[in-house]
Design brief:
It is built from ten helices and eleven strands. It is α+β, with helices and mostly antiparallel strands and 326 residues long. Strand 9 and strand 10 form a beta hairpin.
């Protein structure tokens, strides 16, 4: 099953059902799903949550939470369900749960299995299947973020949740000496340093972005394999809460290990990513002073931030996240 394609099918099916119900409602139509009863399954699952997850179970949980976050993000749930959601099932908590269960050495097949399972159950729930709805939320409860560790089969524990670290001050922006004294460049630098300060303090950045921005994602691994994603017109507020998106796996080397499904649902949480950095080093990408490179030299991931004039100041128009695992 292709997780991202079936995810789109939920939206189409739900929209079609809503359109049909607007013109005719059958007297024999089954009673609406009791979402409060279904959601109570979360608490029951949470009671059975293990205190330590192995890598495969953590990956499966990340897939479940990605699907749930995506359904929230795209308004898949009907209003009675959304109104009944406890805090742990709302978007900010769902995105934190996604990040909690993502480990450095991800088990992508297990993550897709979890997403496919959640996809199937949620599709049935939206069609009125009470048992499927209960199981869907029970599974999320089993993936509660109460546990404090994820461990692999050798019992070496690794933190699953992002652990905020005390970051040092952002290093000065590295500039070409002949451009340093340009007044307009100084204004751009001042804005970028404010943005870096927000990241360092884990503070919201939405007010420093255009109302809608572009997001680009690229994770490159061995044998020229790369997982990419792109979101146009991303609401600025989503950058503060985190958001799911569709990604595609591509490869060039015939010796690459190719996953069974090329499309997947990934998640991006800027605050969680920056909490893992110890220092933000900033470089100007080019002499136009509109693209800036953010890097922690001890890590393999980095950000490219594009800015442009906005009102009487500047605003971020694009965030690009890159990870090179080789």
């Amino acid at each position: 099953m292709n997780a991202s394609l079936t995810f789109r099918s939920w939206f189409i099916a739900t929209a079609a059902a809503a359109a049909l119900s607007a013109v005719a409602v059958s007297a024999s139509e089954p009673a609406a799903l009791d979402w409060e009863t279904a959601i109570a399954g979360f608490a029951e699952g949470e009671q059975r949550t293990p205190m330590v997850f192995n890598m495969k179970d953590a990956a499966r949980c990340s897939g479940r939470w990605m699907v749930h976050a995506g359904a929230l993000r795209y308004g898949i749930f009907p209003e009675p369900a959304a109104d009944a959601f406890i805090e742990q099932l709302q978007l900010p908590a769902a995105m934190n749960a996604v990040d909690f269960f993502i480990t450095e050495d991800r088990d992508h097949p297990a993550s897709r299995d979890g997403a496919d399972e959640a996809d199937r159950l949620l599709g049935l729930a939206l069609a009125g299947d009470a048992a499927a709805a209960r199981t869907y939320f029970d599974n999320l409860g089993l993936c509660s973020t109460r546990p404090e560790m994820v461990q692999d089969v050798t019992a070496m524990a690794v933190d699953a949740a992002a652990t905020p670290q005390q970051q040092t001050d952002a290093s000065p922006v590295e500039l070409p000496s002949d451009d340093f004294d340009e007044p307009v460049n100084q204004q751009r630098l001042a804005f970028v340093e404010i943005f870096a300060g927000r990241l360092r303090d884990s503070a919201p950045v939405a007010d420093l972005l255009k109302p809608q921005i572009s997001f680009v994602y690229s994770v490159e691994s061995e044998c020229s394999a790369v997982t990419t994603g792109h979101v146009d017109l991303l609401p600025a507020s989503d950058v503060d809460t985190g958001f799911p998106f569709e990604a595609t796996y591509n490869w060039e080397n015939p010796d690459c290990t190719v996953p069974p499904e090329l499309d997947s649902i990934e998640a991006f949480n800027l605050k969680a990513i920056m909490s893992r950095w110890n220092m933000i080093k900033i470089q100007v990408e080019d002499h136009n002073f509109d693209v800036f490179y953010f890097k922690d030299e001890r890590r393999e991931d980095y950000l490219l931030i594009s800015i442009e004039p906005h009102g009487d100041t500047y605003a971020v128009s694009q965030i690009e996240y890159r990870l090179e695992m080789f």
